[in-house]
């Protein structure tokens, strides 16, 4: 059997020094499924920042924390867990979920949704201006 515990304490706002407050909320509590089934873990979030990352982590019974999935506000994804894991991001609904297919006993763990707010990113510079051609007569 698969058991996922989703800590609700992570839904409390995280104090920020100058950029407001961000928070994540996991409301499902404890989920139980059978081996081979599919489970979807849900997370809602709040942020006032333009740039941010959302993460899913899994904490094994041994205490080891594993990175599973990351997504940013532009929907750029990084899957660190393999083909059985996928994520859905609905920016307008402030919703981020993790789906695990073909559940295995090793998937039983504590799952954490996390938010990282970024104050500035993608500072690339201004566009290069093309030189103005000049013609001189001899």
From TrEMBL:
<dbReference type="GO" id="GO:0042101">
    <property type="term" value="C:T cell receptor complex"/>
</dbReference>
<dbReference type="InterPro" id="IPR013106">
    <property type="entry name" value="Ig_V-set"/>
</dbReference>
<keyword id="KW-1064">Adaptive immunity</keyword>
<keyword id="KW-0391">Immunity</keyword>
<keyword id="KW-0732">Signal</keyword>
<dbReference type="InterPro" id="IPR007110">
    <property type="entry name" value="Ig-like_dom"/>
</dbReference>
<feature type="domain" description="Ig-like">
    <location>
        <begin position="15"/>
        <end position="113"/>
    </location>
</feature>
<dbReference type="InterPro" id="IPR013783">
    <property type="entry name" value="Ig-like_fold"/>
</dbReference>
<protein>
    <recommendedName>
        <fullName>Ig-like domain-containing protein</fullName>
    </recommendedName>
</protein>
<keyword id="KW-1279">T cell receptor</keyword>
<keyword id="KW-0675">Receptor</keyword>
<keyword id="KW-0393">Immunoglobulin domain</keyword>
<dbReference type="InterPro" id="IPR036179">
    <property type="entry name" value="Ig-like_dom_sf"/>
</dbReference>
<dbReference type="Pfam" id="PF07686">
    <property type="entry name" value="V-set"/>
</dbReference>
<dbReference type="InterPro" id="IPR051287">
    <property type="entry name" value="TCR_variable_region"/>
</dbReference>
<dbReference type="InterPro" id="IPR003599">
    <property type="entry name" value="Ig_sub"/>
</dbReference>
<dbReference type="GO" id="GO:0002250">
    <property type="term" value="P:adaptive immune response"/>
</dbReference>
